[in-house]
Design brief:
The protein is an alpha/beta fold. The chain contains 15 helices and 19 strands. The protein has 2 domains: 2-66 and 213-293 and 413-474, 3-Layer(bba) Sandwich (FAD/NAD(P)-binding domain), CATH 3.50.50; 72-208 and 298-365 and 367-400. The strands form 4 sheets. It has an 8-stranded mixed beta sheet with strand order 7-6-5-15-16-17-14-18, sandwiched between helices. Strands 9-3-2-13-19 form a 5-stranded parallel beta sheet. Strand 5 (73-75) and strand 6 (83-86) form a beta hairpin. The longest helix is centred in the N-terminal third of the chain and has 22 residues, at 101-122.
Length: 475
Amino acid sequence: MTRKVKAVVIGAGVNGLVAAAALARAGGDVTVIERGSAPCGMMALGLFARGPHPAALETLGLKAAALGPAISTVALCPSGRHVMVEGAEARFADGSAHPGAERWRVLSHRLDRFATALAPLLTGAPPPMRLRAEGLPGLLRFALRLRLLGARDMRELLRIGLSNAADLAADALPEGPLPGLLAFDSVLGSRAGPMAPGTVVPLLRRRAPLRRMDGLAARLAAASEGKGGRLRIGAGVARILFEDDRARGVLLDDGERVEADLVISSLGAAPTLALAGAEQFDIEAQRRIRTIRAVGAAARVDLYLAAPPRIPGLDPAHHGARLVLAPSVQAVERAFDPVKYGRLPALPVMEGRIDGARLSLTVQCVPYGAPHDRIVAASLAALEMVAPGIGGEIRQAEALSPADIEAMTGAPGGHWHHGEIALDQFLTLRPANGMARYAMGPPGLFLCGAGAHPGGDVTGLPGLNGARAALEAMR
């Protein structure tokens, strides 16, 4: 059986759904192929989202209010003096004033200004290696944003952009849960410690309001279909079809052919290469794709307890917040050190949420193939610092290592971003040199997933940017 459409999008994660909506709005007949049993991608394993980006929401025809209310973050402290964070405001969870509140406010506003200045680099394709006329508007917008910062802030942004989150936190705040929160957010989903160069950039990308992930995938899927993107759930792509050296559609696992003028993949670069066949790429392109650093270091743990967890110093009314256990910058760096050698840290850092007697965690600093029982044991050892006796309340525990996440979602290495967001894998070098503007190489084949610029998280920007690049190529 053969069907003909304008475009095929592989994968129904946030980026695939946004790409489909953008293509459909441009008048295309678009089909989204999703191997899983529901549209979600990595969203099924996440707890919180900072997005999608307003430009992606506009493409889907959604308002930010449709995603639910923004939630607070509680930076947990072993002493019981937990810190409540709501944007630029910080106070102790018991309502008393925090001595670092003013410094946190100043730093937060500065980071927001820097994030605004960087926005033109994220909401479009990165500038080409050889500057051409089409790259000038984006660079001019970026230069103008930098100039509007003023000389002092412009120099500061350029200084910290190549620095690391540990130094940024140490310069602005005394050691404790607040800088620990900054350090945690700078490496969440990555295989890096806060002392690694370039970790300020992920921090700046995460300045949007925080919301729970519950039901987000279903809302995005409904919005994408409402704009004309047709979803095929439970259908796997066996390979990408080529004719006259151009992508011409996909062959599904059941033998059905879906012919198309465009094939846009929200998978990583390496899985896309595997579907296309190495013969479609030159040797250098193959080498670059296969050397992309994409080994995940975040695990998912779900603990089912006899009763809601008791955290001394934290009112149960705050159980709906995002809970982050990263007591200090040094705690985050120490948690990452063993991962370099394939070992699980004694005390990993994590974020979590409480739903009744269920505690769901994203555990950071977990080696790729760590055993489930050891992931759970290490998580409980860290939780005992803020919730004494929690181990005795466990009725059931489930864990997914990065290797499990890769097997479930197809994300390369189980990595949230399909590749490290580092100085050598960012902007014009993402996912690899020569593929930074979403075209994979063979005509008609484009990348729109987290492995493309500007990277992962639930922004939808790679999907939007990739769709725009594909439409421009068609024109």
